[in-house]
Structures are given as structure tokens and as C-alpha cells.
Specification:
This protein has ten helices and nine strands. By secondary structure, it is α/β, with parallel strands linked by helices. It has a single domain (5-13, 20-225, 254-280, 335-341), classed as Vaccinia Virus protein VP39 (Rossmann fold), CATH 3.40.50.150. Helix 6 (202-215) links the parallel strand 5 (190-194) and strand 6. The protein starts with a strand and ends in an 8-residue tail after the last strand. 47% of the residues are buried.
């Protein structure tokens, strides 16, 4: 079924919705600034997307399966969480995968409108803001997501020009983006996604690989959780929390930390050349607000998976948050980036 299409031009106004107005301010005026530590009492316990606690009335950014309007579904990502993590995501993504991607894109047949990039589960559009300025030539980005507010914002806050000054244009598509087909990707030069693979099932990852292979386009899929965390100083509960969190990530058949391996296998079965690179978050005192929210979500998900950890985990979290507030905590959250160079179709180079 063809997805409904909504096209938004640069310069539109962002529709009002409680909560995420500061997302626009962060991207337009403060993106990349170091976050200052905030009082833990002043923040919600867990921002949706950072952990298992939903916020009433918040819309899900990404609906992965099923039909209908998604009423009653817990939110996948809140805009505040996407805002908070964007600078860390930009710093973490692997630049080493850009050269082989550029070489493949340069070999594609020239199109009048330039590159056509499908960004899957785009959220507030951070992937486009990071990648478009690294690529030469005119680009047309097709942003896929479920939340109309975030689609509109992603279009308004999208980059205006490529690395060589060429024009970047944007189109948005709202719908269930976990079931792409080669027809939906017809004419695509590239498929991108960020922090997506680990919230898909094996069947959905296989469908994504098949769609990219059928369209003959490469895929750059970044920031999938790897299931490994390093905190200073080490604590006896670190491993218990990590294992319980990883089990939580696999609930309902989702791949969680197994996602990159499954995706590499799926693309490989379709004849793609696959490259994997680490893309860890490295969080220190300058990222205290992100670290705080990540900690709350990480520990909260672990306790939801293993309620018997609750009392000890509460003490653990209190200690870690105190160290974070004091500027003493440093965290490495491991992720992986994947570049799949699918075999071209229709005689492309």
C-alpha cells in the first residue's frame, strides 16, 4: 500500500503541542552546546525513549507493527529525548563509513534532481542534519515517520545545502515505515536510519534488507545499541543492570543488542557488502543532562525486566546520579554503525 504523503516546505511554522517547543530552539540556536547539569527534582523521572516510563498524552514517534492510529501505545521516543541525544549522536557516528558511501553514490547514474535519500524513522531529522552536509551534490530527502508534528519539525529544521553548496530539499511521508518494499524505495539513492534496528524484529530487519536490495540502493544504519556499557568507577551492579537491560530490549521479539549482527546477516544474504564500525557515546561532565536521563532509563528498564533488583537498583541509581551531578561520572555507551552496499540494479555502476 502506498504511504500517505505530506510535503512541507522550508519556512513553515511548527504546530503547537505541549512540551517540545525547545526542540526547535535547540537545533536552530544551541545545537551542539554542552548541556548543563540540572536538578534531578526538576526533571521527569524518565523521558520516553530513554526508558520504559511513558508520559501521558505523548505521541509515539515510531509505530513498528500493527494497524490503526496507535491509540494507547506507549511512546517510543519523545522529542525532548531526541533533542537531548542529538549532539552525542552526531559526535558518535562513524566518519570512516562516509568515504565508501561517497564512492558508491558517485558511481550512481546522474539524476536531474540529484540524490534521493529515504530517512526511515526520522524523528526530528537529526540524521539529515548530520549527513546531508557531508555529501556533495543536490539531495532530495524523503523523511518517514509516524508523528506528524515531528515530520513537520524535521522538514522545517532540515539542512539547506550539501557539502558543495548544492540544494537540499525535503518531503515527508507519514505511515508505518517498518514494512518498506522495493516499490516504496523505487529511485532511491540511499536509505538511512538512526537508532532504529534495535527496535525492530528479525522479520522487519529482513524486510528492510530485502527492500534495499530490491531497490539496489546502499543503506547507512547508525547508532544501534551494542549491549555494552562502561562506567567509571566500576560498580558491582553494572553487569546485572546491563544484562537485565539487554533482556528488556529483546522483549516482544525485538532484536535489541542483536540487531546489527542480524542486519549484517540479512544484507549479506542479499549479496550486499557490509561494513560495521563502532559508534560509542562518550559522556562526561559536559553531557550531564543526557547522562542523567540515560541512567534513569537504563536502570528503569532493567528493574522493569527484573523487579527483584528494585531496592538495590535504587541505591545504585542514587549513587550514579550523585556522581553525575558532581561531574565525576563518565560513561561509554557502545553502539554500532552499519553500511550495506547493495548490488545496483537496472544497469547502475
Amino acid at each position: 500500500m502506498t504511504e500517505p504523503v505530506t510535503t512541507t516546505r522550508h519556512g513553515g511554522t511548527i504546530p503547537a503541542r505541549p512540551g517540545p517547543r525547545d526542540v526547535a530552539e535547540a537545533v536552530s540556536g544551541r545545537r551542539g552546546d554542552a548541556a548543563e547539569p540540572e536538578s534531578t527534582a526538576a526533571r521527569p523521572a524518565v523521558i520516553p525513549g530513554a526508558g520504559p516510563a511513558p508520559r501521558p498524552g505523548e505521541l509515539a514517534t515510531l509505530r513498528l507493527r500493527g494497524t490503526g492510529d496507535g491509540a494507547g501505545e506507549p511512546p517510543r521516543y519523545a522529542p525532548e529525548w531526541l533533542q537531548l541525544r542529538e549532539p552525542a549522536d552526531a559526535d558518535a557516528r562513524s566518519h570512516d563509513l562516509l568515504d565508501p558511501l561517497r564512492i558508491r553514490l558517485a558511481d550512481l547514474p546522474r539524476r536531474t534532481g540529484g540524490l534521493v535519500v529515504h530517512d526511515i524513522g526520522c524523528g526530528t531529522g537529526s540524521m539529515g542534519r548530520w549527513l546531508a552536509p557531508h555529501l556533495d551534490g543536490a539531495q532530495h530527502w524523503i523523511l518517514h515517520d509516524r508523528d506528524p508534528y515531528l515530520l513537520h519539525f524535521a522538514a522545517v529544521a532540515s539542512p539547506r545545502s550539501a557539502a558543495d553548496g548544492s540544494r537540499v530539499t525535503v518531503e515527508t511521508r507519514r505511515g508505518d515505515i517498518a514494512r518498506l518494499t522495493p516499490d516504496a524505495l523505487a529511485g532511491a539513492s540511499l536509505v538511512t536510519a538512526s537508532a532504529l534496528l534495535d527496535v525492530l524484529t528479525r522479520e522487519e530487519v529482513e524486510a528492510l534488507a530485502a527492500a534495499c536490495a530490491g531497490a539496489g540502493c546502499p543503506a547507512l544504519l547508525t547508532l544501534s545499541v551494542a549491549g555494552r556499557v562502561e562506567l567509571t568507577a566500576p560498580h558491582p551492579m553494572d553487569q546485572e543492570i546491563t544484562e537485565a537491560f539487554n533482556a528488556h530490549q529483546r522483549r516482544g521479539g525485538l532484536l535489541g543488542p542483536d540487531a546489527v549482527t542480524a542486519a549484517a546477516e540479512a544484507f549479506g544474504e542479499h549479496g550486499a557488502t557490509v561494513r560495521l564500525n563502532p559508534s560509542p557515546w562518550r559522556l562526561g561532565p559536559g553531557q550531564a543532562a543526557l547522562t542523567e536521563q540515560w541512567l534513569r532509563g537504563w536502570v528503569g528498564a532493567a528493574v522493569e525486566e527484573r523487579p527483584e533488583l528494585a531496592e538495590r537498583a535504587d541505591h545504585y541509581l542514587t549513587e550514579r546520579l550523585a556522581a553525575c551531578a558532581a561531574g565525576e561520572l563518565r560513561v561509554v555507551v557502545h553502539h554500532s554503525d552499519l553500511l550495506a552496499l547493495c548490488r545496483p540494479v537496472d544497469g547502475a555502476a
